Amino acid sequence: MAGLKLIKRRIASVKATQQVTRVMKMVAAARLRRAQESMMNARPYSLTLRDAIRDLAAHVDASSHPLLEVRDVDHVGIIVVTGDRGLAGSFNVNVLKRAQQLMNENAQHQIHLVTVGKKGSEFFARRGADISHRMQGFFNSLNFSHAIELGEAVTAQYINSTMDRVYVVYNEFKSVIQQRVVVEQLLPIEPDSSVHNAGAEIIFEPSEIEVLKAILPKHVNVQLWRVLLESFASEMAARMTAMENATKNAGELIDSLTLNYNKARQSAITGEILEIVAGAEGLK
Amino acid sequence: MAAVFHVELITPERHLLSAESTHVRAPGSAGDFGVLANHSPMVAGLGPGRLQIDFADNRKEEFAISGGYFTVENNKVIILAETCLRKSEIDLNKARADKQAAQQRIDAAATPAERDEARASLDRANALILVADHKGD
After folding, report:
1. How many other C-beta atoms are found inside a 10 Å radius of the C-beta of residue A77?
2. Per the CB < 8 Å rule, is B42 touching A56?
């Protein structure tokens, strides 16, 4: 009988876990819908702006603005975008692995990390890496001002040469079941190499300097905004999938435990009947 | 039939428009300008104001924008607006209320940054009113 009680207790505990994973899945699904919508809306603007800027960069001299300036690389900045919380499948692990790989590739340079999300900051703090700026705990109220904060922090470090090149590592949202880790170079802004008439004159209104001064820092913020949205949507999608699997696994576990429970109960009953029969036989 | 060119109008929130046009009039940060087909490559900053697009099918549409960028290259115009409302979407009463509030904020501003911020929202409200009141030509 002790075995029976034990199995029953396990079933109850797995059921409680399943309830939690099911709720987490539903929460992630609801957030995902919103995150995906804002990401889809932000994409055309930021990608068009990126194309326009890279095209523009091919036409102007790299010395016309600090953010276009290509320097010898001593210091590499890496922005690692993770989530604040785990339980999202391989979402955080994949980004951290890729970031680690990128750090190894740049081992000959000084590396400065910018971590976005608690997971990344904890991971690199444990390894004693140099984290020059960290942002966390804001994804639930994500808005453009966070992209501005991140953009300004990075731009400032680029301009005062504490970083000579800046990469950003994040999860790109492909679909609900697929997220892809990508590495993009944020700074210096890379000119579009496919532009043929690179020497052609562009008219600037009001002036080249004015336009670049206004548009380039904004471009950085807009790109980071898209990155944050992509990452957040990916996190929600990854969590939803992970929690769906967990709920399914819990269900299977409950089924097999229930089977064991029934078997144990049946054999207990059989045992009791045998005893009774044997007792009755003995009385004859 | 005037020569046509492609125009895209995009804001951070939505992809508003992708169409063929014959003439675009935009509020440049250094004054309004117009663009026809085969314009030389140009990049311009936009201020708050009225944007008018004449479509290839002779329709016209007006928009109020709060600022942004305008690029033209190879007969393709891209307008990246920070915010943009179609004329039909403008709430004139709200714009007037915003204008009044902005004026009060300018008077009450304690720091230059606050005043600039209030001026910017005054300009945005004025742009909305300008477009909503415009009778068309």
Report:
1. 24
2. no
